Amino acid sequence: MSSTEPSSVPSAPATSQRLAWLPAIAAATTVLLWASAFVAIRHVGAELSPGALSLGRLLVGSVVLGVVMLGRPSPWPARSMWPRLVVCGVLWFGVYNVALNAAERRVDAGTAAMVVNVGPILIALLAGAFLGERFPAALLLGSAVAFAGVVVIGVATSAGSTADTVGVLLCLVAAVAYAVGVVAQKPLLARLPALQVTWLACVIGTVACLPFGPELVRETVAARPSTLGWVVCLGAFPTAVAFTTWAYALSRTSAGRMGATTYLVPPVAILLGWLLLGEVPASLAFAGGALCLVGVALTRRRVRKRSGQARVAASTGSADSAGSADSAAVSSPYDRR
Predict the structure, then answer these.
(1) What is the pLDDT of residues 121-171, one digit of tens each?
(2) Do 222 and 337 fall into the same domain?
(3) DSSP character for 210?
(4) Do 283 and 313 belong together in one domain?
(5) How many Å apart are CA 302 and CA 323, to the nearest integer?
(6) How far is CA 308 from CA 135, 212, 312, in A?
(7) Helices 301-316 and 137-157, interaxial angle, to 10°?
(8) Cβ(125)–Cβ(189) under 8 Å?
């Protein structure tokens, strides 16, 4: 073969460019699937109690992830990792699901979304306190704008509703469990694959929910086949797939920035409800959704700026510095911090 013949092997920069956007795609997948869970829970919640629904979807998620793990042998976690795994599994996969399912029986979806989205703020604070993450201005400003959008959505979708105190408290419990679980999960992802962390946490959450086993058996026997189908979908996609893509993206960015991404869940959930359930959102909800989009975009602003600086360095520096700058230039918006 002539040395001048073009190679069919993709260049390293082109491959890096494609791989760099995988974390962003993973985060978008998580947002879409978690938003779809709100639509599914509307159908299932009428027939299954909060604990039974949580155990059902976690059982399905554990089985799906376990089957995938069979083809991906990984070293068993060190003893020092298990406390964090237990905290993540019990709080985020267990307590969060049960509390949120119970809360949505007492408060409307808008109020639930508004209160639970205190979580990303708690994540940023806890990550700063326990993980040493900084509080860049872009993250603080973007989080504030996105949270304002969630509040607007909550007001728009809560008109005429009566949210009781117990329901709001359950949403707060879910938010705290979510935030602590994410902060416990983040250090694990530096030492274990995202898939393995998700599977182990899901299994731990399943074990924590086993007391709801009798309820699950009793209620599934009486449930319609379509309800059971929704439980399987919740376990396979918003649980197994979405929590894995979340962990993958989280391993490549800070907990605070990744938490801010979930501000997109409420507007996407409203959009899916409009498309799939015919629930026409209030006009004010569109404004809230726009604020969420702007806020999340602001949290990524500093990363894009750094990428631009890297491109300048690549074009003006020496060969060695250009190589490292090119790597930074193709880095993902979800680069590790």
Answers:
(1) 889 889 988 999 987 787 788 888 878 887 887 777 665 555 577 888 898
(2) no
(3) G
(4) no
(5) 22
(6) 21, 52, 7
(7) 140
(8) no
- Tell which phi-psi region holds residue 188, choosing left (phi > 0), alpha (psi between -120 and 50) or beta: alpha
Contacts of 321 (CB under 8 A, 6+ apart): 313, 314
In contact, 56 and 183? CB cutoff 8 Å: no
321 lies in the same domain as 259: no
The verdict on residue 331 lying in a domain is yes
Contacts of 190 (CB under 8 A, 6+ apart): 251
Instruction: Tell whether 234 and 275 lie within a shared domain.
Output: yes
Domain that holds residue 54: 21-299
In a domain, 2, yes or no: no
Question: Both 264 and 324 in a single domain?
Answer: no
pLDDT digits over 8-61, tens only?
445 555 555 556 688 989 999 999 999 888 778 877 888 999 999 999 999 999
Evaluate if residue 307 carries a pLDDT over 70: no
Q: Are 230 and 220 in contact (CB under 8 A)?
A: no
Q: Distance (Å, rounded) from C-alpha 87 to C-alpha 181?
A: 6
Written as six digits, the tokens of 256 are: 């605070």
Which has the closest alpha carbon to 129: 252, 296, 300, 256? 256
* Per-residue confidence band for 272, with pLDDT thresholds at 50, 70 and 90: confident
Total domains present in the chain: 2
Identify the residue with better confidence: 304 or 73: 73
Q: How far is CA 219 from the centre of its chain?
A: 29
Separation between Cα atoms, residue 119 and residue 34, nearest integer Å: 15
Q: Is residue 7 part of a domain?
A: no
How far is it, in rounded angstroms, from Cα 211 to Cα 94? 11
Residue 4 included in any domain: no
**Which among 323, 178, 327 has a CA at the least distance from the CA of 258?**
178
Summarize the confidence of residues 242-252 as an average pLDDT. 95
Amino acid at 301: R
pLDDT in tens, 80-136: 999 999 999 999 999 999 999 998 888 766 667 777 878 888 898 899 889 999 877
